[in-house]
Design a protein that fits this description.
Layout (H helix, E strand, L loop, with lengths): L17 H8 L7 H13 L3 H21 L4 E5 L9 H8 L4 E6 L2 H11 L5 E5 L5 H5 L2 H6 L7 E5 L11 H11 L5 E7 L9 H13 L8 H5 L5 E3 L5 E2 L8 H8 L4 E8 L1
Parallel strand pairs: 1-2, 1-4, 2-3, 4-5
Antiparallel strand pairs: 5-8, 6-8, 7-8
The structure holds S-adenosylmethionine.
S-adenosylmethionine binds next to α1 and α3.
Length: 271
């Protein structure tokens, strides 16, 4: 298979990756045939999946705009993905060119593409790291260069934590980042999940099975499990919501949440 010039030499083109499958779903171009095959198969099984991922991305934009309105100018974007339209630094630096962002992702393509896009932008750094290693991330040169934890910092975990299993303790990981924040810092999370009262469609069960087998095992969480990620934070209005229903921007968003969107979103302010 031909290796495009943006693909780092050490990655296996035959093995689908979380970041590249997501990039395909979002309409991006940084993916390989193996990624596209799985992405298409899941979309054929569950056509509404594309709307689901676009809703997580739309929540990211609304969250960053909300945080900017609260005066936040520093962002730690964990599991930031392959850059596409509407990245955190683009939104933040439109409001304040001095806004600081650190992007963190485990995926080499996401990191290489982020670095090439951000070349020359002194207020943004990119770190290749596993977010589960919160001590390593927080002690990194990239975080040290950009973020002043005496001032409000927003930690973003958008469509990330369903890739962290219960055994890896997502609650403890969030707690590690939380403890570094000063009061007035923020946490924004969106997460795949269903509530006990939801009936998951056969299409969703099948799409999940394809993804779990071919890409990685996902951990869906219910509303109570999601809410408990925010220990030590006050949830801002409207609290925990279905992803499209968190401060929706159009009536279509609300309509969709009425259909029991498979995922939750919230923002908390550290107390
Ligand atoms: C579904 S994408 C979401 C990307 C972005 N946050 C967005 O909302 O568009 C999840 C991202 O998390 C990254 N990821 C998954 N597990 C990770 C880990 N343990 N450490 C760092 N990044 C991780 C993947 O590589 C992928 O880029």
């Amino acid at each position: 298979m031909e290796r495009p010039n943006w693909a780092p030499g050490d990655i296996d083109l035959e093995r689908p990756s979380v970041a590249r499958v997501y990039d395909y779903w979002l309409g991006g171009a940084h993916n390989f045939a193996a990624d596209r095959a799985v992405a298409q198969k899941t979309l054929e099984t569950m056509p509404e999946l594309r709307g689901v991922v676009l809703n997580h991305r739309a929540f990211l934009r609304r969250a960053v705009r909300y945080l900017l309105a609260q005066g936040v100018r520093q962002f730690l974007d964990l599991g930031s993905g392959i850059p596409t339209v509407g990245n955190v630094h683009e939104i933040a630096q439109t409001t304040d060119p001095g806004a600081k962002v650190v992007y963190v992702d485990i995926d080499p393509v996401a990191v290489a593409h982020s670095r090439s896009l951000l070349d020359g932008n002194d207020h943004v750094s990119v770190l290749q790291a596993d977010v589960r290693d919160w001590t390593g991330v927080l002690a990194s040169d990239e975080v040290d260069k950009q973020l002043d934890f005496d001032e409000p910092v927003a930690v973003l975990m958008i469509a990330l934590l369903h890739f962290v299993s219960d055994e890896d303790d997502p609650w403890g990981i969030v707690g590690g980042y939380r403890d570094r924040l000063s009061p007035g810092g923020f946490l924004a999370v969106s997460h795949a999940g269903y509530d006990e009262s939801d009936i998951e469609s056969d299409a969703s069960v099948q799409a999940r099975r394809i993804y779990d087998r071919n890409v990685t095992q996902m951990s869906f969480r219910n509303q109570a499990e999601f809410t408990s990620l925010f220990k030590g934070f006050d949830l801002v209005e409207p609290g925990v919501a279905r992803v499209p229903a968190w401060r929706p921007e159009s009536p279509a968003d609300v309509e969709e949440s009425g259909k029991r969107f498979p995922g939750f979103a919230a923002i908390g302010r550290k107390t």
